[in-house]
Amino acid sequence: EILRAAWRFLKTSARIDLVQLRHVRADAVIAPLLSELNGEIIAREKAPYLDLSSAESFADYEKRYSKQSRHNRRRMARRLAEAGEVTFDQYLGGWEARNLTLQAMHMKAGTGNRSTDCDLSVLKVNGEPTAFEIAFTCKRRIAMHIIVYAPKYEKLGTGTILLERALRSDFDNDVAVRDMLAPAHAYKMNWADGSVDICDWVIPASIAGKLYARIYLGFVRTRGKKLISSLPDPLRRAIASWYSAVARQ
Asked: Contact at 8 Å (CB) between 89 and 121?
């Protein structure tokens, strides 16, 4: 009822052509209202998740993966151990977590407060940070925001080993669901138990809004995103860098 009242207030107090809500989960509180208002879905993705509450321990949970995948992870762990001492650390705030988070963001881009529930996990080889995960927790759910690894350790599977260590920690911390968020990359689906639809909704409120939704959002923007995603990684990074520079200006 509060959401309905908010919508009525918006319609009567503002001259709007279109309302657009991006990345709305199918299980979001507002999703039923959007259907009720005859909203249109113009884009759909999936957010993979791991149902950790379905097992008592990581050892039990791991049995759902094939014998080959478990063997591959053990092989990666042995190869990485040959490079030096491997440690998995987690930080719940503090200056060291801040500095490591900046390092993780720098690695992702290529270039003492727990209130946010932001967790940082780090895999180190001989004390050198080689893979990071930045996640957010709420109750018994954890959402993966960023996972990144140093290119020089790519062939040693540091990203995979980091995720496995994080899952073990999830069981120790009584996490029920690990949400990998959209998009549903292949490596996420290899781990996931299921997925949740993530939709971009629009509610046109005028002729101009309908045209914008159908022509730009529904066609031009969708085709443009598909085109960019099909480009080689170096070219996509160059476009992203250019866009960021333009946005800053």
From this structure: yes
